[in-house]
Specification:
The protein is 34% helix and 29% strand. It is of the alpha+beta class. The termini are far apart.
């Protein structure tokens, strides 16, 4: 029995081929590759050895057993704990549409899902903000006031505008921005509250925010070491 996770990897765009080759070496094909922009404040960028540059975001689906091997290899081969190398984290999938979809996500790799289980205590959470295009600064200013370290922005197009207006009571622009922020669990509520107060559905940003548990991370040792100190 094993659990299935969505693995996200965020790195500078010039490292894309390196990560793609690395994951192929371990039999994992990246399902989705997209690009975004870093939003972290300068002091955070300096601490992680990153530049305010264009980012690559890679999504793949792996089992918990595969993650153990991949995390170890990320640390040993990619040196992901060295500032500037990027970060990787996994989010558990609670359900999948059907057998064919499962086969697609796992690419036929051996996988047998066990019974649903309660998530263990998590240290980090992934905040996802979906907002009208052009309001990233407003959202990040609100988030930083609540001590969010930074995020990654993805430009996207929204769908289902009619349903959104019906259920949310507001019209939704087609051009959207998605902002991903990995934050400590204890600070999650304050950040979400700040975003909704400053850029929520009553504002022009029309922001929607939700969180997902991050059960494992790689490349965030710097933050963890500072907290221990």
């Amino acid at each position: 029995m094993s659990e299935l996770y969505m693995m996200a990897t965020i790195s500078d765009r010039n490292q894309t081929r390196r990560f793609l080759a690395f994951y192929r070496e371990y039999g994992v094909n990246v399902t989705l590759l997209t690009y975004g922009e870093g939003t972290a404040a300068s002091e955070v960028l300096d601490a992680f050895g990153l530049e305010a540059a264009e980012k690559a975001i890679l999504f793949a689906f792996i089992t918990d057993t595969e993650w153990k091997h991949i995390k170890s290899a990320l640390q040993k081969q990619i040196k992901i704990d060295i500032p500037g190398s990027g970060i990787a984290f996994i989010v558990p999938l609670s359900s999948i549409g059907g057998k064919k979809q499962l086969l697609y996500l796992t690419e036929g790799r051996e996988f047998k899902k066990g019974e649903e289980s309660t998530l263990k205590e998590t240290k980090y959470e992934l905040l996802v903000v979906i907002a009208n295009q052009g309001y990233t600064d407003l959202i990040m200013d609100a988030a930083r006031k609540a001590h969010a370290p930074g995020g990654t922005v993805i430009h996207a197009k929204g769908t289902g505008a009619e349903k959104a207006e019906k259920f949310l009571g507001v019209s939704i622009a087609v051009e959207k921005e998605m902002i991903f922020m990995v934050t400590r669990r204890e600070g999650k509520n304050a950040i979400m509250k700040a975003i909704m107060e400053q850029a929520g559905l009553e504002s022009e940003a029309r922001a929607i925010v939700f969180s997902l548990p991050v059960t494992e991370t790689a490349g965030m040792r710097l933050i963890e070491d500072e907290e221990k100190a």
